[in-house]
Amino acid sequence: MADIKLSLACNDYDRTRPLIDGRVRCEGVELAVSVLKPRQLFPRMLDNQEFDLAELSLGSYAALVARGASPFVAIPVPISRVFRHSCIYVRTGSGIETPQDLKGKRAGTTQYGATAVVMMKGMLQDEYGVAPRDLRWTIGGLTKAVEKPLIPLNLPTDISLEFAGPGQTLEGMFEAGELDALFSIYIPRLFISGSGCIRRLFPDFKTVEQDYFRRTGIFPIMHIIALRKAVYARYPWIARVLTRAFVQARDMATEAIYDTDALVSTLPWLIDHVEEARRFMGSDYWPYGLDANRPSLQALCRYIYEQGLAPRQPTPDELFVPVD
Asked: End-to-end alpha-carbon separation of the chain, Å?
């Protein structure tokens, strides 16, 4: 029987590249791969279900499941995950020295419901007692016009939130003293340029992140792989073979890091980072599958409910279809 033809959209990560370039094939499937950045991909998938399967924001997907409005199912393949302590920036002179000092301050972010921001807010509440309602929020673009929410927001009335006005940017407002903090998925240009007006809330963020993981088991998941429900209904076996293919691609990427024959100038640096991850997270530091990721998934499910992004708290099990 001929392979079925399906479209896949994802970013070009080391763990997806073997699928993109064809070194890894998905049994019974011919994948037509579109390489897109998440900021381009997510609106196209969420608004128009443009691809058969795609990388998708975990927070948006989980909120849609909890709302009973998801046109997707998903497989437990966290292709993007990152600790987010390093992504909270504060303005010099704002009086913010500790996380608790954020209370009553003005914070800017590009996507209030983005998974990264959800995890930052949840971590601050769990670890430091700083709830989202304790800050005054402004939504806007870092250096350009405001981006619309990935999915509609229907927030609790005790959340103070406004959108940046025409011509305003978050970095401009921050530099002018109109914002005290930035919850930024991307590194602000002010920080990259070495501006004296900005610093990280957690200067020694790596130590804080390692301690956080040891105590909680949470390695925040940003993106998973989602399939249109119609595709899964027609080919339910595809969840299993897709998961196997993504596991194979991830393992191939990991093996390549240790290829000391490769003449890559950053190779020793990459090996050092992988070895550091193995020391404090274990040998399977980037696990796929449901059970291995329960602490991170449970935290995300709780946060979207507590932050008013979902009408109920979904469970990790209902987010994913069987892949065994």
From this structure: 23
CATH architecture of the domain covering 85-216: 3-Layer(aba) Sandwich (3.40)
Distance, in Å, from the CA atom of 305 to the CA atom of 38, rounded to the nearest integer, reads 24
Say how far apart CA 51 and CA 55 lie, in whole Å.
10
Over the range 196-218, which residues count as b (16 or more CB within 10 Å of their CB) and which as e? ebbeebbeebeebbbebbeeeeb
**Domain boundaries defined on the chain:** 4-81+220-319, 85-216
Which alpha helices (H) appear in the chain, and where do they start and end?
17-20, 38-48, 58-67, 115-128, 170-175, 189-192, 205-216, 229-234, 238-257, 267-281, 294-306, 316-319
Query: Do 4-81+220-319 and 85-216 agree at the fold level?
Result: yes
Tell me the pLDDT band of 274, cut-offs 50, 70 and 90: confident
Query: Is the distance from CB of 296 to CB of 220 less than 8 angstroms?
Result: yes
CA 128 to chain centre: 22
Q: How far apart are CA 149 and CA 190, in angstroms?
A: 24
pLDDT band at 224 (very low <50, low <70, confident <90, very high): very high
The three-state secondary structure class of 137 is strand
Q: Which two tokens stand for residue 148?
A: 């619309």
What does the pLDDT look like over 123-139, one tens digit per residue? 999 999 999 999 999 99
Spatial contact of 318 and 299, defined as CB atoms under 8 Å apart: no
DSSP β-ladder status, 4-10 and 53-57: parallel
- Provide the pLDDT confidence category of residue 277 given band limits of 50, 70 and 90: confident
Cβ proximity of 56 and 223 under 8 Å: yes
Residues constituting the chain: 324
pLDDT computed for residue 200 by the predictor: 98
What is the CB neighbour count within 10 angstroms for residue 132? 25
Its CATH architecture, for the domain 4-81+220-319, is 3-Layer(aba) Sandwich (3.40)
Count of C-beta atoms within a 10 Å radius of residue 189: 12
